[in-house]
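Marked as duplicate of an earlier ticket. Keeping the data here for the record.
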Amino acid sequence: INIIDATSIERSLYLTTQILELDYPVVIALNMADIMKRKGVTVDEEKLSAKVGVPVVTISALKKTGIDKLIDAVVGCKAKTNTGKPFSPQIDRAVETVQKDLTGSNRRFKAVKLLERDKLLAPVINAKVEEAAANLEKSEGMDTEQIFADARYRYIERVKTAAITVAPPKETTTDKLDKVFLNKWAALPIFAAI
């Protein structure tokens, strides 16, 4: 279960893109739905689910809403269903090239980390990985860590555009007072009067 703060979805989805590379079934729980609604944010669960390729459920842990729906989604998610693709075909080809030589579970995750030249995996970075990373860097014009981060953020922006709607904020009393007190013509006379 990937619990996402629904009030800051962009930040939370970055981790989600990494979790989706693991060989585990994933269900996304959008928490703090009550605050999300208060802020005028609407998330289309079906569109978000279609974009990221896993079930999405809106919950509120504080008000204990949506928990039963989350449990049903977890029980129904027995196989890996992740189909979201945050990378371009060119990046995917580089990942698949490295992934072919890996064994065990989470091969896609490991391939991405190898291409990023993760310090923890430095002992297993071989010439083939180095060549794939160098080719990717040459074609994209930046280092592989930036390439993957940039691809993730572009993907998140596409997901956000497709599935999330933000209502324009309502004008508060403070905003109304600011318009009067900070007006370029009225501000100085009001200041002098006070």
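See parent ticket for discussion. The longest helix spans residues 144-163.
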